[in-house]
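Re: [ENG-882] Designed sequences occasionally contain unexpected residues at chain ends

Forwarding the minimal case from QA. Structure tokens:
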């Protein structure tokens, strides 16, 4: 049975860097998306784009592509993003996967988890 995956990159990366992982999943018959979050797109001004913008860009991506039963994987900072997306779009998600990622508790920010 084929699944739908959305692979979410970490800070200072783009979706392109997850394409090697996506290639293996696609070879198994799965549908895989590797979007690039707001704040990491060419020309984005990182000094004014934060977590809320990254979350909104992923929420918009899932809605625009009408993705359902998604296995949402976050790497590193992507764990922060997928945690917030899960709060906003639980009906679109099947599973959250934290791959070497930050896993915030309710109300935590990234600075709470790093020295």
């Amino acid at each position: 049975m084929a699944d739908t995956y959305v692979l979410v990159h970490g800070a200072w990366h783009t979706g392109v860097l997850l394409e090697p992982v996506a290639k293996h999943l696609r070879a198994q018959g799965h549908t895989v998306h590797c979007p690039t979050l707001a704040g990491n797109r060419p020309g984005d001004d990182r000094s004014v784009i934060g977590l809320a913008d990254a979350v909104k860009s992923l929420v918009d991506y899932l809605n625009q592509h009408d993705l359902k039963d998604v296995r949402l994987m976050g790497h590193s900072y992507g764990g922060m993003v997928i945690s917030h997306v899960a709060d906003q779009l639980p009906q679109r998600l099947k599973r959250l996967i934290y791959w070497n990622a930050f896993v915030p508790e309710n109300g935590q920010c990234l600075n709470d988890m790093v020295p």
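QA comment: On inspection the terminal residues look reasonable. DSSP finds four helices and four strands in the chain. Proposing we downgrade this to a documentation issue.
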